[in-house]
Amino acid sequence: MEMLIYISILVLLLAVIMNIVVSVVRSGRVIKSLRNIENSATVSLERLVREVRQAESVNVSLSTLGSNPGRLVLEGTDTGGSPRTVEFSLSSGTLMFSENGVELGAITQTDARVSNLVFYRFSGPNSEGIRTEITIESGTSTHYRSEKFYSSAILR
Question: 139-154 burial, b if ≥16 CB within 10 A, otherwise e?
């Protein structure tokens, strides 16, 4: 009888420990998804804002504004005074960056996917700017996360 009581206590403790382990693993996956999303958003929006601020104009005829998937083409000059064209576009869920027609690669992380990218052009009497709306997702079917981010920058 005493042995059955010990075994039932051990089984109960094992069940509690297994439940804790499963919860920790699940939380780790959720945190990883959120970290992928936040890292991709931070890097993407910082690069985008920096390029918009350095640009002199938006090439409206080559850009896709106000709809998804958006495409943004910025024109300006580099530090040497040479013409410089920068393009942001979406390719297979990845935010791509090109400079002077040469694709420099992805800005977002491989574990994150961009599901929505929209650029809006706004202008005032003395300024012109770009507002960006981006939705980034990450995770598996059981630990899926999606977050929307917004950013605005004024051209120089």
Answer: beeebebebebebebe
CA 83 from centre of chain: 29
pTM of the model: 0.79
Q: Which two tokens stand for residue 61?
A: 């005829």
Asked if residue 55 lies in contact with residue 63, where contact means CB atoms within 8 angstroms, the answer is no
3-class SS at 51?
helix
Q: Quote the pLDDT of residue 102.
A: 86
Residue 118, both tokens: 């929209």
State both tokens at 36.
């992928």
Residue 145: name the closest of 154, 155, 135, 153 by CA: 135
Element of type H or E holding 110: none
pLDDT above 90 (res 123): no
Q: Which residues pair with 94 in a beta bridge?
A: 91
* Residue 97: its H or E element: strand 94-99
Q: Give the tokens for residue 31.
A: 């945190």
Residues 30-83 have pLDDT tens digits of 888 888 899 999 999 999 999 999 998 899 999 999 998 999 999 998 888 889
In this structure, the number of other CB atoms found within 10 A of the CB of residue 70 comes to 21
